[in-house]
Design brief:
Chains A, B: GO terms for molecular function: sequence-specific DNA binding. 2 copies of one chain form a homodimer. Chain A has 153 residues and is α+β, with helices and mostly antiparallel strands. Chain A has 2 domains: 5-46, Orthogonal Bundle (Arc Repressor Mutant, subunit A), CATH 1.10.10; 58-139, Lrp/AsnC effector binding domain/regulation of amino acid metabolism (RAM) domain (Alpha-Beta Plaits, 2-Layer Sandwich), CATH 3.30.70.920. Chain A has 5 helices and 5 strands. In chain A, α2 (22-29) crosses α3. Chain A is elongated and about 55 Å long. Chain A starts with a helix and ends in an 8-residue tail after the last strand. The structure holds a DNA duplex (30 and 30 nucleotides).
DNA sequence: GGGGGCACGCAATAATCTTGCGTCCGAAGG
DNA sequence: CCTTCGGACGCAAGATTATTGCGTGCCCCC
């Protein structure tokens, strides 16, 4: 799939505010509402546009504890990695999980309500996991920016 | 603001898929469409619900390079921290930025198109920055999960 | 026992989305 | 150089969805 200037502008806008009407989007980029809609449908069917979600304000949600956890596994076999990934993905509070290169194998962002729940999850995901060699937790003092924005050019 | 069972279910659903109709949401939680809408408006005006966004599929967007960067500043004065934060937030490719506790001061997630752009940004944000003491980059091999989901209970 | 506030459902209205149709433009081929 | 084809567009009608006014019921507090 190839993007023109209008596609870039649309995708940019949609990633920032997907609640605008098709007509408003159209006025921004110089298209009719129906043309905008057809483009959006194209993004969808091409798999570029995955979904629409509501974003909560972490600061306004009671007692949210955000933490970034770095993890190294004991053994590098892909079976062990899969098992660990499965364990992570089964937990909704695992907000983000990345398989990374470098000194650590995984970066995990945990979003929990209250420190007690955080500890409980850390226990389950990292202490009790059979193949976690080492992990370190960095608690988020201030979420300067959160989001899923991806550039398209 | 205090949440009941229905609020939790609604906020959960909206964070996963905000494109459902008010009627569909209402059927899920046992409310009419208008009652659902009024609740959503309440979340908005309480500041709990920040915005609606479209989420792109990183795997389907050409040449996306995701990287997690850990940063420590030279000096701890709040002026230096603010300056660094400003510099981060001015860059759209800074997808996420967290001020954290522990061995590092900041965790930054960079989303760029192509390695060249990544290097350029790393240069600007970390090498050229006046008060960055040390930083390390972990490239994302596989984004197992991305998102902004926050639990509400 | 009697307000008062708040959330609800229903129904009418308003806004937005969706789709059929005719047109235009550019690329490919005669 | 002309013709044809495919793709994207705008417009407008129709369908769906969101919004809002109104009346009712519930619960808390007086």
């Amino acid at each position: 799939m190839t993007f023109d200037e209008i596609d870039h502008r649309l995708l940019d806008t949609l990633q920032r505010d997907a609640s605008r009407t098709l007509q408003a989007l159209g006025e921004d980029v110089g298209l009719s509402a129906s043309a905008v809609q057809r483009r959006i449908n194209r993004y969808r069917s091409a798999g570029v546009l995955a979904r629409h979600v509501a974003v909560l304000e972490a600061r306004r949600t009671a007692d949210i504890v955000l933490a970034v956890v770095l993890v190294t596994l004991e053994r590098e076999s892909s079976g062990h990695h899969d098992a660990f990934a499965q364990r992570l993905l089964a937990v909704p509070e695992v907000q983000q999980a990345y398989d990374v290169s470098g000194d650590w194998d995984y970066v995990v962002v945990l979003a929990t309500i209250g420190m007690a729940r955080h500890s409980e999850l850390a226990q389950h995901l990292f202490k009790d996991a059979p193949n976690v060699k080492r992990y370190t937790t960095m608690f988020v003092l201030d979420p300067l920016r959160t989001g899923t924005y991806l550039p398209t050019r």
